[in-house]
Write a structure and sequence with these properties.
This protein is an alpha/beta fold and about 70 residues long. It contains 1 helix and 6 strands. The chain has one domain.
């Protein structure tokens, strides 16, 4: 029996000033996974979305790119 694919409900991207890194909040139901990225603070939205999608994939989640929110 194949493993069930997890689907992320949404991903929020925001700048964490305390760590000087981008924070990706990957949410699936009640579960929230936080991952940080070393992308530059002035990274463009496409780079941020791609990095967030990769982070979600690395955690075993499928992600609809329309469910990514970038908060600058």
């Amino acid at each position: 029996m194949p493993a069930k694919t997890l689907v992320a409900d949404r991903v929020e991207i925001s700048w964490d000033a305390a760590k000087n890194k981008w924070l990706f909040r990957i949410q699936s139901g009640e579960e929230v996974i936080r991952r940080f990225s070393d992308l530059a603070k002035n990274a463009d939205e496409q780079a941020l979305r791609s990095a967030a999608a990769k982070a979600a994939q690395d955690e075993g989640y499928e992600l609809d790119l329309a469910r990514i929110t970038v908060n600058r």
